[in-house]
Amino acid sequence: ADADVAAADVAAATDAPPDAAAPLSAESFQAILGFLLAFVDKEKHAEALAEKLCQRLDATKADDDGVLAAARGGGADADGQAAARRDLAFCLGKLMLTEKVARKLAELIATYKDALPDAAVHETFQGIVAKARKLPKGAELKEFLDDWEAKLAAGHERRLDLDGLGPAEKPAGGPAAKKKAPAKKRAPAKKRAAPKKKKMVVESDEEEDEVDLSGDEAAGKENVRAAAPRATR
Asked: How far apart are CA 129 and CA 121, in angstroms?
C-alpha cells in the first residue's frame, strides 16, 4: 500500500545521519518529505511516525563538523543541530493529525523540550496545536490542548519543569491562580428546647379532704387540726 511505503520512506529518511542528508537543502528536504507524508493517511502509521520523529528529536546532537549546516549554505560555525531539529519538526507538522496523534505528541514532550527554545521548532508545534483545535472534537479537547500549549510556551522560554511530568510552571505575571473554593457554611446550631413549664393544679375546696398530702405538708395539717378548739355541745 502507498501509505505503508510512504511511512517506511519517511522513517528511513529521518533516520539518515547528518552527512547523508547534507546534499539536500532545507527546501529540497521539506519538498521531498512533505510529498511522502501526504501519503501517510492511516492513524496507526501517523502515530508510529510521531513517536519515531520525537525520539529522533531527542537524539539530535550538536554537529561539531558542521557537515549539514555547511551543505545548506551555512558557515563552519552554523548550528547543524538546530537545522536537524527544524527538519524533524517540519515532518511532525505535516503528519496526518488525529486526537490520538495529538495526545501522543503531547505525551512525548520530554523528548523535544530541549528543541523548543528554537523559534522555528516552537512555531511548528504551535501550528500543530492550532490544527488540533479544528478537529471534530476540538471543543472537548480544549483543556488538554490548553495545557499542552502552556507547556510548549514554557519550553520555548526555558522554564519548563517536567519532573514527574508535572504541569508547566507559569510566569509571575501570568493568569491568576484558580480561586479557592468558598468555605462551606456551618449548619446553624440547633436551638435548645425551652424547658417545659410545670402546670399548677388548683384544687377546689370541695376536694380538699381527698388530697393525699405527704411529708411536711401532711404533718403541718395534722398539727393545725390538733390545735383547733373542740366545739362545745
From this structure: 13
